[in-house]
Amino acid sequence: MSYFVRKISKISPLSFWLSPLLSFITACSNLSSWLNGVTFALFYGFFGYAHSFIDPRPDAYRKMISFVSFPSTISYEDITKQYVNGHLSDVIEKLLYVFVRSFTTDAHILFLIVGIIGGFFLYLVFRKIISYCGTDCGRGFYILIFLMIILHSPAVIGGIRFFLAFPIFLYGTFLYLIDKKSIGIIWLLISPLAHFSFILSILLVVFLRLYQRDINALWWCAISLCIISMFLNATNFSQLFSSINVGEYNQTISNRAELYASAKSIARFNESLTTHLMKIQQYVTRIFIVILLFTIKRNGMQYSMNAFDLNLYRITLAFLSFGYFFISFNVVGERYLLPGIYLTLILLYRLCCNHESNILIRLLRYSFIFFVFNIGWVFFNTYVEIDMRYFIFPLPLFIIS
To answer: Residue 21's CB: how many other CB atoms inside 10 A?
Structure first.
């Protein structure tokens, strides 16, 4: 069956016209193919175009209003000057506004372009992951790909900034830290142009390129912060931030960070049902992380890892530590943990391939259970935000209508 699906995937760009969803699913069975990469990026663009903009709660609705009301007189030069002068923190989003409004005011086209760009970079990330994990298409590998799509799904296209920044940052991280290619720094420096928060993550990446020792200290750091973060909240972040005068360096970033840490923002997020469900998800994810890290430690696996896995393990521990430091200090701090979760899944898969451990094999096999709320969130938001007719009927019906 797996072999048959991989064969079918070779014509995914053609089958996309008959069923975008099924074409995307078959394409994901063989992402080492550039043709399937085209289908992958097209589906993300198609998903962006299919936003209905009916429900005013999602990010996509707010971005649609922002785009439609964006002055047509603003030019690329104006946006660049605002960014250079520190009055704008996320320049790529506004540059996209200028570009799209040069030929249409239809927000569907904006999200189509955003989806294609973000989908393309996410595809580049998956190509890297496949090169690290091999081309095995067993159950564990499909779970790995499924979870990564869920964790950074097309359902977050509506936010634009983070949707674009995350795959660009992760691709640069893979190049710079794992492949040891200095060209990765270019993509790393581009990511904060889409979302300013990745400036902090870039500092971590540069530090890891220089810091090559003491994995044991990183292990204790990751475990400790994972557990301690359960007892912290965003109020602690507000107190910490007030002692660091970021406004002295960049007023725009300072204002944004203060907004996230404000009592009003904290109260608004705490009133959200999604926030409460995601907090439960974070507790469950911690169980997943703790089981993995203690299994590695107890069995002394780090002493039998090859050079690649040892480097991957070191980077994973650092990103987990970084993510859990921020996750409870900020109402949107989970974005700092996502790279660590991606790296954790890659590490788990490689350990299952290279070590005989029934615990790790079962952890990989049933890992989707530990992300059940993430899965539910994606399907619910897809139902709320997307015109589902686009996934039921062949694409030509909408082109001729």
So the answer is: 14
HSE toward the beta carbon, residue 347, CA cutoff 13 A: 27
Q: What local confidence, expressed as pLDDT, does residue 246 receive?
A: 47
CA distance to 36, 130, 146, 221, 385, per residue, from 29 (Å): 9, 11, 10, 36, 27
What the block records as the tokens of 383 is 């139902």
Q: What is the dihedral of CA 92, 98, 103, 107, to 10 degrees?
A: 60
Q: Which two tokens stand for residue 247?
A: 């406004």
What is the spatial distance between Cα 80 and Cα 68, in angstroms, rounded to a whole number?
A: 20
Q: How far apart are CA 167 and CA 37, in angstroms?
A: 14
The gap from C-alpha 218 to its chain's centroid, in whole angstroms, comes to: 23
CB 137 within 8 A of CB 42: no
Q: Please, is 78 exposed, middle or buried when counting C-beta atoms within 10 Å of its C-beta (0-12, 13-18, 19+)?
A: middle
Question: CA 226, 90, 263, 373: dihedral to nearest 10 degrees?
Answer: -50
Residue in the block written with tokens 């974005």: 335
| Amino acid found at 263 | A
- Give the distance between the most distant pair of CA atoms in the chain: 63
- Other C-beta atoms within 10 Å of 250: how many? 15
pLDDT of residue 329: 66
Yes or no: say if 178 and 187 are a contact pair by the CB < 8 Å rule: no
Task: Report the pLDDT value the prediction gives residue 272, as an integer from 0 to 100.
Answer: 59
What is the secondary structure of 342-376 as a DSSP string? HHHHHHHHHHHHHS--HHHHHHHHTGGGGGHHHHH
Residue 43: Cβ within 10 Å count: 23
Low-confidence stretches of the chain (pLDDT < 50) are 1, 4, 246-247, 249-250, 263, 265
> How much is the pLDDT for 249?
46
How many whole angstroms separate alpha carbon 379 and alpha carbon 364? Answer: 22
DSSP letters of 266-314? HHHHHH-HHHHHHHHHHHHHHHHHHHHHHHHHHTTGGGT--HHHHHHHH
Instruction: State the CB neighbour count (10 A cutoff) for residue 273.
Output: 7
The predicted structure's pLDDT at residue 159: 92
